Automatic annotation (TrEMBL):
GO terms for biological process: RNA processing. GO terms for molecular function: RNA binding. It is found in: Nucleus, Nucleolus. It comes from the Eukaryota. Pfam families: Fcf2. Residues 24-116 form the Fcf2 pre-rRNA processing C-terminal domain. Residues 134-148 have a biased composition (Basic residues). This is rRNA-processing protein fcf2. Residues 117-148 are annotated as: Disordered. Coiled coil: none annotated.
Length: 148
């Protein structure tokens, strides 16, 4: 009796991954395509890398120390459930197009940034002659005493 390839009409072939240009352009087994990086998206990714600086009360893991942006990522929209209507919801005025715009318009973050910038400027301000001057009323009294 001679053997035929498919005697019943079924055939089977092993699934071997085909290496092509399309397979190399995705993130491994997740099949995540590399998106095109626009200037707005680039700013958002840089802000996410520097997120530990933004909020003094939150602490994040060290994460990547590389200065390059990730090649494979996805961007989504957070949809709040109906139960968070009054508690954790952003109003329409507070919603912005990008993450950077939201952070720049946040009042608490703006006050924190302003305070930190003033602290840094104070620490780096040169002393000069100002630290030797006597300020206030006592300097007038001393000047009068010197004239007599």
């Amino acid at each position: 009796m001679s053997q035929s390839k498919a005697s019943i009409g079924l055939s089977w072939a092993p699934k071997v991954p085909i290496f092509s240009k399309e397979a190399k352009e995705s993130a491994g087994k997740f099949d995540m395509p590399a998106p095109t990086i626009t200037p707005e998206l680039k700013k958002d990714l840089e802000i996410l890398k520097l997120r530990s600086v933004l909020d003094p009360k939150r602490h994040f893991k060290k994460g990547d120390k590389s200065k390059t942006l990730p090649k494979y990522f996805q961007v989504g929209t957070v949809i709040e459930p109906a139960s968070e209507f009054f508690s954790g919801r952003l109003t329409k005025k507070e919603r912005k197009a990008t993450l950077v715009d939201e952070l720049l318009s946040d009042h608490n973050l703006k006050a924190y940034r302003k305070r930190k910038v003033q602290e840094i400027e104070e620490s780096r301000k040169p002393g000069g002659v100002e630290k030797w001057k006597i300020k206030g009323r006592n300097s007038w009294k001393r000047a009068k005493d010197r004239r007599r």
